[in-house]
C-alpha cells in the first residue's frame, strides 16, 4: 500500500515504519495518524513480521508534535473527539499491539510525538534527541495518553515537573529518568534498533505477545496483573512454541520458532 505521509519497509522479520513529513518535522496530522493506524494494522496481520520499529525521517525530529493548525479553532466536543479517536486508533492501539514496537527517537519528540513514543513498548534515542510535553504552553494538556504514560515511566514527580514547566529534556536526562533505554550517536540508532529487534525475533512470538498483555495489565484499573500473568503463563503451555522451546532446551539446541 502506498502512503503519503509514512514509509513502510520490510526487512525479513522486521518492519520499519517511518513518519515522512520532514518539512513539518514529521508533525502528526489527522491523515498521518490514520495512515499509521493502517500501517500498524497491516504489519500486525503480516505473519512474516515479528518486530516493528517506528522512527521519523531525517535527523531533526522523530515527531515534533501535533499539527496545531488542524485543531486551533476546535471547541470542547471537538477536542474530546480528537483525543478519544486518536487514542483509540493509534496511541492505545500501538500500546496493545501483540507484536513489539521499538521507538527510535531520532530528534525532537514533543507533545504527540513523545506520546507516540511512550505508546511503543520501549524507546531508544539518538544523542541529539529532545523530549517534552509542551501542551500547557498552548493552554491545553497532553491528550494522547501523556498524563498517564509519562508518570508510569519517569515517576509522578518528574512527570509533574515536565508537564507543568513544558520544558524539554535531553536524551541523557531521558535515559537517567528511564524514559529511554539507550542513547547512541545518530548513525548508530537504527542499527541498534535492528540488533534489538533481531534478538526479540529469535524468541517465541506467542510468548512475547503474552508478556505484552501481562505487563500492560499492571497498568489497567481494576485489573489484577498477577491474575493475568497466571492466565497467560498457563496458556503458553498449550502452544507449539512451548513444545519447541522446551524440547530444544532438553536436546541442547537452539529452538526454531516459526
Write a brief caption for the model:
With about 260 residues, the protein is of the alpha/beta class. It has helices at about 30-45, 75-95, 110-120, 145-155, 155-165, 170-175, 185-200, 205-215, 225-235, 240-250, and strands at about 5-10, 15-20, 50-55, 60-65, 100-105, 110, 120-125, 130, 170, 180-185.
What does this structure look like?
The protein has a six-stranded mixed sheet with strand order 1-2-3-5-7-10, sandwiched between helices. The chain has a four-stranded mixed sheet with strand order 4-6-8-9. The two termini are 26 Å apart. Helix 2 packs parallel to helix 3 (112-119) and helix 3 packs across helix 4. It folds into two domains: 6-201, Alpha-Beta Complex (2-enoyl-CoA Hydratase, Chain A, domain 1); 205-250. 47% of the residues lie in helices and 16% in strands. It has helices at residues 30-45, 76-95, 112-119, 146-154, 156-165, 171-176, 186-201, 205-217, 225-236, 240-250; strands at 6-11, 14-19, 51-56, 61-63, 101-105, 108-110, 122-126, 130-132, 169-170, 182-184. With 258 residues, it is an alpha/beta fold.
Fraction in helix: 40-55%
Cα(first) to Cα(last) distance is: 26 Å
Give the total of domains.
2
CATH architecture descriptor of the largest domain = Alpha-Beta Complex
For this structure, what is the CATH class of the largest domain?
A: Alpha Beta
Spatial extent as radius of gyration: 19 Å
**Poorly predicted ranges (pLDDT <50, ≥5 residues)?**
none
Shape verdict: globular
- What is the overall pLDDT average? 96
Structural class, from secondary structure content? Answer: alpha/beta
Total of DSSP H or I helical runs spanning 4+ residues = 10
The largest sheet has its strands arranged as 1-2-3-5-7-10
**What characterizes the major β-sheet?**
6 strands, mixed
Q: What's the number of extended β-strand segments?
A: 10
Give the helices and strands as they follow along the chain: EEHEEHEEHEEHHEHEHHHH
By CATH, the topology of the largest domain is: 2-enoyl-CoA Hydratase, Chain A, domain 1
Strand fraction band?
15-25%
By CATH's scheme, which homologous superfamily of the largest domain applies?
Answer: 2-enoyl-CoA Hydratase, Chain A, domain 1
Amino acid at each position: 500500500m502506498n502512503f503519503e505521509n509514512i514509509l513502510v519497509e520490510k526487512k525479513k522479520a522486521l518492519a520499519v515504519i517511518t513518519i515522512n513529513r520532514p518539512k513539518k518535522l514529521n508533525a502528526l496530522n489527522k491523515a498521518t495518524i490514520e495512515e499509521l493506524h493502517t500501517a500498524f494494522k497491516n504489519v500486525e496481520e503480516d505473519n512474516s513480521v515479528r518486530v516493528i520499529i517506528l522512527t521519523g525521517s531525517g535527523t531533526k525530529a522523530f515527531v515534533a508534535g501535533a499539527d496545531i493548525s488542524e485543531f486551533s479553532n476546535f471547541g470542547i466536543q471537538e477536542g474530546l473527539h480528537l483525543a478519544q479517536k486518536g487514542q483509540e486508533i493509534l496511541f492505545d492501539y500501538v500500546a496493545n499491539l501483540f507484536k513489539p514496537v521499538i521507538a527510535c527517537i531520532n530528534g525532537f519528540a514533543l507533545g504527540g510525538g513523545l506520546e507516540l513514543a511512550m505508546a511503543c513498548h520501549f524507546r531508544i534515542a539518538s544523542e541529539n534527541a529532545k523530549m517534552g510535553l509542551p501542551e500547557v504552553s498552548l493552554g491545553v494538556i497532553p491528550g494522547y495518553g501523556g498524563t498517564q504514560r509519562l508518570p508510569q515511566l519517569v515517576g509522578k514527580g518528574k512527570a509533574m515537573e515536565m508537564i507543568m514547566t513544558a520544558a524539554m529534556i535531553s536524551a541523557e536526562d531521558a535515559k537517567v529518568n528511564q524514559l529511554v533505554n539507550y542513547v547512541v550517536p545518530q548513525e548508530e540508532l537504527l542499527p541498534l534498533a535492528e540488533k534489538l529487534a533481531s534478538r526479540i525475533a529469535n524468541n517465541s512470538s506467542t510468548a512475547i505477545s503474552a508478556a505484552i498483555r501481562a505487563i500492560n495489565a499492571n497498568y489497567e484499573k481494576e485489573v489484577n496483573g498477577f491474575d493475568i500473568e497466571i492466565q497467560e503463563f498457563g496458556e503458553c503451555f498449550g502452544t507449539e512454541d512451548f513444545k519447541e522451546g522446551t524440547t530444544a532446551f532438553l536436546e541442547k539446541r537452539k529452538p526454531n520458532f516459526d
